[in-house]
Amino acid sequence: METVELKVALLGRVPLFANLSRKELETLAGICITKFYEAGDCIFKQDEVGELLYIIVKGLVRIEHKSHYRKRKVLALLAEEDCFGEMALIDHESRSATAMAMNNIELLLIKKEDFERIAFDSPAILMNIIKLLSGRLRQANREIDDLTFKSVQGRIASQLFKLAEKFGNIEEDESVTINLKLTHQEIADLVGTNRESISKAISAFRKEASVDIDPQGRYRILNKELLRTWMK
Fold first, then answer.
1. How far apart are alpha carbons 162 and 27 in whole angstroms?
2. How distant, in Å, are the alpha carbons of 22, 35, 63 from that of 105?
């Protein structure tokens, strides 16, 4: 990102920096470092010491966690204007997850000491941090609810709705296209199940015409109400 003006415009759209003054945004823009990663690059690894906050300018980032048994769970797919890595800066613990570039990406980086200096002088940033962490806690609670009370098919349907909310395009026929190309294994890693369960569920959704896959390999929700019946 070449100019301060472009950085200021982007930072102003990032929820963590909502309601900041123009002067505060310019100060942030002045300390941001631009960095590029290629598809498949590891941005940081689980259990590393966290020293940077990351803001996505372009591209997609996958946040994933591996258990002691080496099982992988994808926690989030992040896109432009999302930030990540803030937890380790706040609690001074090691990284709780790994961040991977899903395609060629551009990031803005803020060093820990710079973030702390600005955040502690800004009530708006402190309030936004509380809102951000509260939102992630609510999301974790929803995932616990899905794991506890929903069938595998219900969890897959729920995940498709989450992806549609973040990456969906509404078509003329009111169907929703999820503007991502995801394999069955990638969806399995998001849901916390195996690829075979995803294949069976997607086949059932397609058979009843609640979900389809377009020629570009993107999922389409054709009938929201029908798909929601799997979540009950």
1. 34
2. 26, 9, 14
Residues with Cβ within 8 Å of residue 121, at least 6 apart in sequence? none
Residues of the chain by 3-state class (helix, strand, coil), percent to 5? 45, 25, 30
Scanning the structure block, which residue is given the tokens 């963590």? 16
CB 125 within 8 A of CB 119: yes
Please give the distance of CA 182 from its chain centroid, rounded to a whole number.
14
pLDDT in single tens digits along all 232 residues of the chain: 568 889 999 999 999 998 899 999 999 999 999 999 999 999 999 999 999 999 999 999 999 998 877 788 999 999 999 999 988 778 878 899 999 999 999 999 999 999 888 888 888 888 998 898 898 889 889 888 888 889 999 999 999 999 999 999 999 999 999 999 999 999 999 999 999 999 999 999 999 999 999 999 999 999 999 999 999 8
pTM value surpassing 0.85: yes
